[in-house]
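Appendix B. Raw example, untouched.
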Amino acid sequence: MVFIWLSIYFLAISVAVALISLPAHRTHIAELARALTKRTPTLASSKLPYGQGSRPTRPSFAGNVTVLQKNPLLLAAAFVLVAAPPAVVSVIRGPAIFTFDDVAQSQDRQIEALLRGEHLIPPPALPPEAFTTREVELIRPDIAGANRSWEQLSPEFTRRLLTVFKVMREQHGYEMTLIEGYRSPERQAALALQGSQVTRASANMSYHQYGLAGDCAFVRDGRVVISERDPWAMHGYELYGALAETYGLTWGGRWSFRDLGHVELPRSGVLGSPRT
């Protein structure tokens, strides 16, 4: 349905732009419309105004260019007609906020209902030095002082993420750990200053600030394994991402800026608002 409405919108815009920017075609288009309305048997007759023979003479491209050169306001009007709608939407829409249709909301409620009875316990906390190894610091040099408290995460998000951890451990043999959960607006702003290769979200525009996101990695032989260059870890990320999506989470591995360890629980009207 969305595709149909978009097609109609662009068709209408194209016709309007043609009528404004190609004035030499206006009479021809009007005659065609009139002929269709009157159910004229043939449109390509000698009675059309563009020529006296059996084949009508159509306005030339050079003729349209000449008209536009003499009437720059027509070209400006056509440009405004095309650019105005997306510009208005961009200005008034405010912060980018995830929204959900009725089907997505229904599925989300079903998942939450299934998990409500689960009382899972977070995995034992790893010692701080586990997050300061060379491998971890090369990929996430800012992670040593990150917040890894499960208590500061949303209970709804926690249930889903711990269920993913449980399935990863019991069905696939991967132990997982939370490397960062809640993130303060100050820390988010500091990370944003490091560039888009670290984060593209400014303060209060990441679900980390609302306890609805977590960055996770794998544990092997007591060590945090985070590098996607490790085939074992890369396979784990693929399993982890698919499971996260099964339980209604958004996986950062689907983004153009891939964040394989990141999962979040989008909620409408959250981003940009004060945390309660």
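End of appendix B.
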